Structures are given as C-alpha cells and as structure tokens.
Amino acid sequence: MQADRVRHAVAPALGSGLLFLFLVAGSLLYAATGDAAANSLVTQMLINAVVVLGIQIYIGNTGVLSFGHIGFGAIAGYAFAICAISPERKLRQIPNAPFGLAEVDFTPLQSGLIAVTLTVIVAFLIGLALSRSGARSGAVAAVVITLALLFVVHEVARNWIDLTRGGKTGLSFSPLGNATLQGKLPIYLILLGAIGLARLFKETRAGRLAQAAREDDLAARVMGIDPAVQQMIALLLSVVVVSAGSALRVFELGSINPRLFFFDYTLLTLTMLIVGGRNSVVGALTGVLIITVGSELTRNLSEVDIQGMNWLLRDGLTDIFLGGAMLGFMILRPAGLLGDWELDHWSLRRLRRTEPPPVPPPSADGDKTPTTVLKVTNVTVHFGGYQALADAGLEAASGEIVGLIGPNGAGKTTLLNVITGLVESDNGQTALGGVILTGVSPHVIARSGLARTFQNFRLFSALSVRENIGVVRLVAKHFRRDRPLPPVGALMAQAGLWEQRDRRASELDYGNARRLELARAAAAGPEFLLLDEPTSGMSDSESRAMIDQVRSMAKLIGAGVVVIDHDLNFITGICDRVYVLDQGRVIAVGTPAEIAANPAVQTAYLGTAE
Amino acid sequence: MIELIQQIIDGLGRGGIYALLALGIAVIFGVMHLINFAHGELITVSAYTSYWLFASGLNWWFIAPTVIVVAVLTAVIIEFVAFRWVRGAPDFTMLMTSFGVHFLVQALFVMYVSANFRQFPRPGWIFDTWRIGGLSLEVFDLAVIVATLVTLLGTYWLLQRTMFGVSLRAAAEDFDTARLMGIRSNRVIRGAFVLSGVLAGVAAVFWLMRSGQAGPTAGLNPMLKGVLAALIGGLGSLSGAVLGGITLGLVEVLLISRLPGGTAGLTDGIVFLLIALLFVFRPQGLITVRRVERV
Cβ contacts of residue A474 below 8 Å, gap of 6+? Predict the structure, then answer.
C-alpha cells in the first residue's frame, strides 16, 4: 500500500513541482538575458503551456480527439474581457451590450472566476452531447461535435456585434491594446496548478479508468467501467485549465478578437501537444518548448537574407514548420517524443527493485460464500436472416466449472456476448442470483458480478500488466466490496506474470497475454468468470498448465467458471459439467464422460464415423 | 409551390457539387478508414491552377480538363507522401495526419504564392437564366445537375462493371479479407485516390466557376461541405454520400431563404450545429452502415 501511495501520489506530486521549477527557472534565465521581446515570448510560452496542459487532460487521458477546446477558450476569453474591461471603455466599444453588461465592473480575478464557471457549464452540456454520441478514442462523432463548437462560437463572436464588437476590431482593454497583466505571479500560480492537476489526474481513479477506456472502450465497459462518466470528469477539469489559460492570454494581450481563438491557435496547441507526446504531462510541456523555439527560429530565419536561400527563408516558413511538425510526427512517431513517460517514472525503477514478491493470500473459502446461480434461459438471436442462437441456455452454480463446447459457428461466443450485454437477444433472459440482467448495459452487468475474457485479446495495450489488473481492481473495490479481492501483486503472481509486471500489455507474448486476460477478469471480483477460449493458440503443455491456472484463480476469488473451448482435453480435464451447442441449440448436457459417450454429440462435434 | 420547386432546383445545383466531394471522401474512407480532411486541398491546387492558366491567357474549355488532371495528380501525390505511411494506424493518427496535410499545403501556398486571394474571371454564361413558367432556372445549376449526373453514372458504371470497381467495393466492405483474396492493396488504394481526385476535379471546376478566386484557404469550405455531407451519409456508404450531399444542398438553400434578415450570415454555423445534433442523436449518420464488431 505504501508503494502504491508513492507510485500514484508522492512521486507524481514531487515530479510536477520539479517540472514547474525547471520551467520557471529556464524562463527567468532566458528573459533575464534578453530584451522586452524575449520577455513577452516567455510569457506567451507559459500561457500556451497552461492551455496545452488543459487539452492534454482531455485528449491524453480519454484519447478522444477534440478540436473544440479552443472554442471553450474563446468563450472564456470573451467572458473574461467583457467582465474585466472597465465600464467607461465598454461604453465606448459596446454601448448596447445586452443584460446591462456594459455597466458591470469586476476585478480581473472575479472576471476569471466568472469566465471559468461559465465555460465549465457550457462544457458540461457539450460533455453530455459527447457521451450521447458514444465518444471514444478516435471517434468521428466527437470530432464533428467539437469542430461544430469551434465554428459556432466563432460565428457567434463575429456576428453578435452588440456583445463582441464583431470580427474586425474586437474588444480591447486600452485604446492601444497594451498588455494589462502586471507581473508574472498569476501565470506562475496557474501554471503550477495546471501541471499538478494534469499530472495527478493521470493517477486518480477517474484518470486511470479513462485511460483504460482510451485503450479499449469495449473491454473497459465489460470490466465495469462507464467511460462516459470518466470522460465527463476529464472534460470538465480540462476546460477549467483551458479557460483559465485563455483568460490569461486575453489579459496578457490586452485584447480579443474571434481570430485569436480559431483554427490557427487550434493548430498551434494541438501540434505542441502531439510533438512532445499527448499522453504525458512532461511530453506536453516539451512540445510547447520545442514548438515555441522552432516557431521563433523559423520566424527569425524567414527574415534573414542569404543569397541563394530565398526560396526557403521567406514568409510562411513558420506555418510550414508547424504543419510539417504535425505531419512528420504523425507519420514517424505518432506517440510523440516522450510517449507516456513522466518525470517521476525514473524513481519507480528503484521502487521496483525493492518490491517484495507477493505473499499468496488465502483462497476464498468456498463454504462461507453462499451459492449463487447463473441462469440463462431461452436465448434466441438473429443476425439478419441468420439464426445464431435458438432457445439456448445454461445454468451454473458458484464453485462449479461449466464448459460450453460446439463446432465453429455453433453460437458459443454469441451466447457469451448476450450474457455480458454486448449483443441484444430477441428473447430470453439472464439472471444472476435471481437478479435479472437482460437489457442492462455491459458495465452494469460487470459490476453485478460477471467478468469475461476475449477470444482475440482486448487488453489495455499501452498500459502495463500491473495497470491492466490494477485499473479493474479499482472498479471492483467500489462495486464488489463484499467479494474477496486479492491484491494486484497476488493476482500477477497467481497468473505467473510477476516478472512481466511493468511491461506493456502489447509487448506480452501469446501465452502471457492469455494469462493476463484471465487475471484481469479475476480482478473484477466476479461471481462468475466467463472465459472465451482461454487455450486457443496454446501448445498442449501450455493448455494443461492453463487447467491449473483457471482452477486456482477461480478458487482464489471464490468464483464459478463458464468456459468456452475447442480443446476437448482441456474441457474434459477441467469441467464439472458440459453443455454442447450446435447450430444455436443446446444438444446435450452432462458430465464430460456422459458427453463423450453421447452419439448426437459425436455426430455434431466430431463428425460422423467414416 | 413554384417557389419551392425553384428552391429544390437551386438546392440540387448546390448539392450536386457537395455530392461529388462527399463521394470522393467516402471512397477514401471505404478503403483506408481515413476521413480525409485534406480533400479540400485538391480544390485549392485546382484554384491556383485555374488562376495561373487564366493569367497565361487560356479559357475555361482548356482549363476544365486540366483542373481535373491536376486534382488527380495532387490526390496521388498526397497519398504517396503522407497517407501511405499511416495505413492501418489508429484513427487518431490518421485524423491528425489528414489535418497535417491540410495545414501543410495551405502553408506552402502562403509561402510561395501569397496569403491573399487572387481573382480570375468567371465564364459569362453562369449568370444566364432561363425562364420557364414562373421558374427562373440558372443555367449554371442545370449544368451542375447534368454534370453531376453524368459523373455519378460514370462512377456507378466503374464501380459495378469493372474489375477495379469490384475490388474497390470489396476492399471497402472488408479490407483485410479483400487482400487475402488477392486484391492488391496498393493498387486499390491508389485507384481510390485517383477516383476521388477525378470527383474532386469535376467539383472543383464548378466550384471555381462560381467563386472565381484562388487562395490558400480556398479548399476549406468545400472540404467542410464534403466531409459534412459524407458524415450525413454514414461515411462508409457511397450512395449515402451522394444522398448526404444533396440533402446538405437542399437544407442550405431552404435555410438561407427562411432565416430572418441579418442572420443569413449564420447559415454555415446553423448547418454545422444541425449536423452536430444529428451526431448526438444518431451517431451512425442518417444512413446506417451496419458493422458487427467481432469480440
């Protein structure tokens, strides 16, 4: 537990502080050696860093691509300007402002708070729309909705002249548009807050669940995670940071117009985020640094006059640099320079060396847990004209291992999909301990006590073995409190994954990936483990070892097992009872010995004697 | 009644161009699962081509076919330089790649031509109208409708009756299986880009006849319209894209004529909002392409 706290709270917090100090020290050094231009460059960079960190909180954790964050920035920027500009200036610029806004007079701090609050309310509505559209990593609907936000805010800002003074002139704090922000303290404070929030959010429950959903939306839901909730939390936090940064930006520039928060700024901030690594806080900041330096260099270079180089050193070089950086990184290194590495990760290696191997916990006592029955009855499913299941069903009691066999296309996986809520059945019913689970969302079914594995892996591939199990255990700690929930270390040891604990799931070989699927499902603290071909692709000896693994894992968490497999040796070696499916129907039930002797089964499953 | 018929014809004229753009985007989405936000760059390049050719004293009869050829070449070059390298990458990577291409091409024009828009003459006949009964039919709308129909029929023939078309449809249906069945992925993907280039080229000719200007951001508006139309149509579906384009054209014309004075400038914003709402309530688009995810 101690190690967990270091890993998820202490080290990240210290790392964030260090990162902040590096950034501020570097900025001060650079500003001290330069002139006013250097000073303003540094200020802008720090403000951009705040905005980019805000975007990172959403895109990095959820994987949902948003083009709308700069639209949120525009709302915050205008709200801030309209509140903070002095009434006498407003009467000159927007005398007809609605709701008497021309007369209101707020301090910059009050205006900032109003701007953040208002923007967060808008973000909540957009968040509802996003979850309604089923946003997930790479989702098109999210792109459309967020782009629409950016466009609509822009159009409103251009056309609502009474409020915004339109697109040509915009609003300004002073007639000359001078900078109004005195001193850098507000920027430092907000930057520190943004770094800390972005880094620590990654380690919070919501952040970790969002990352799991980012890696595999469907697997996350089947493990009891409701991505919509985590995405909403990420969105609101990210919008708090983006709107604070945007208000700062307006204050620093001393004016706002619709172009300030539109495509160009979206491109700039997204490129910053992507170059350094969108999944990492230190990555986002590295990106801000690289792009700021690069833009400044290319801007200066474009004004240099060198004989024979004029084809390259000319206006627009900065745009080429930005577009080229975005394209180049997407093609050559889509995860960015740093991937998901964080500053505090170097300390974890030491932690890892001193980590004691886990002590196997006592197995759950089968006698103490009351018997629960999983009862699936009369399930019929059609895919178009094809009948996948006809009146199929099964029954399993806790402590029991039930097998489901049948030839390809018999409907085994479909039955599992119906039970876990991924496929809707035409009729039929699933009941777990008397509670009916038909027509319920997959994540609710998972929380009720059914956890499954997938025939073709659906691991959270960019997360480590430890995190794959840990994130599911987080959910279980919340919803399956009354179940025996072995610690992550014990589950890893039980599945033979202790040595691999800090490797990414995507780096595991076939057998280890299968065992991780099993351990992850077990971490959900289910009443029943539903295993979809746990030995497919395994050698004879591996699949024999899997028999023990499944048995001991089921014992450890005190769960019953329903297992699909092709491998007759495996099924007869492990099951108490076996159901045989053929063409969507249950054609036989019985002990492995009875099944092996059943002539109907032999015909369907093994083919007729030649 | 007459007014409505009039508006429908106007809408078809607009929607025809959108349909061509959307179809080009849907074809690419079909084979690569990529939403090509760089599709508008084909129009940008075409616009500058027209500008330069006009400046050297040529007329539309020469420029129109040249624009189509240029659009095809641009499509093939973009595929070769950028999209080829991200085939099969996660959706996030592909989306950002197409945005990267979009911004990069725009930047190249800013750098080597100018950030300002350049004007070129529009053909005289596009303003002609024919009066039939109470209807005043713009010759231009009729030309668009006819050209769209011809192009769509040609595309239909290509997709249904040629080996290439069958491969393309197979690849759009299930790319991996199509490859296993011996369809050459390089050739199909390049072919899809050529086809999308042709469609964009035809659309560009009409788009440019009406706008008469070239600028670094000339492709932005047609790109957005094409993407929106393709989205309405459910992205993967080719007939959906055509329907989506026509729907978008009709909705725009009806909105413009019905919005109260002073708010007509918001048409694009409202259309965008409507489509976002469509996605909130029907994430799969108007025309659903059923895809069963295997688990």
Answer: A205, A208, A209
Report the pLDDT value the prediction gives residue B181, as an integer from 0 to 100: 79
Burial call A91-125: b when 16+ CB within 10 Å, e when fewer: eebbeebeeebbebebebeebbbbbbebbbebbee
- Residues B3-45: tens digit of each pLDDT: 888 889 889 989 999 999 999 999 998 888 888 999 999 999 9
Please tell me the predicted confidence (pLDDT) of residue A363. 67
Asked if B103 and A331 come within 8 Å (Cβ–Cβ), the reply is: no
Distance from the B103 Cα atom to the nearest Cα atom in chain A, whole angstroms: 5
3.30.70.100, 3.40.50.300, 3.90.79.10, 3.40.710.10: CATH of A373-606 = 3.40.50.300
Residue of B92, B93, B228, B263 best to disrupt the A interface, most CBs of A under 10 A: B92
A64 with A139: CB under 8 angstroms?
yes
Closest residue in A to B115 (Cα) is A316
- Residues of B with Cβ-Cβ distance to A156 under 8 angstroms: 269
pLDDT value, residue A177: 47
Q: B165 is written with which tokens?
A: 């078309």
Domain edges within chain A: 2-260, 373-606
Q: Per-residue confidence at B293, pLDDT binned at 50, 70, 90?
A: very low
Q: Which residues of B touch A (CB under 8 A)?
A: 35, 82, 85-86, 89-93, 95-97, 99-101, 103-108, 110-112, 115, 228, 231, 235, 263, 265-266, 268-269, 272-273, 275-276, 279-281, 283, 292-295
Q: Is the pLDDT of residue A353 over 80?
A: no
- Give the dihedral sign, CA A102/A108/A113/A118: positive
Mutate which of B232, B267, B279 to test chain A, going by most A C-beta atoms within 10 A? Answer: B279
Element (H, E) at A237: helix A227-253
Instruction: Report the share of chain A in percent with pLDDT over 70.
Output: 96
CATH number (1.10.12, 1.10.10, 1.20.120, 1.10.3470) of B2-281 reads 1.10.3470
Q: Per-domain residue ranges for chain B?
A: 2-281
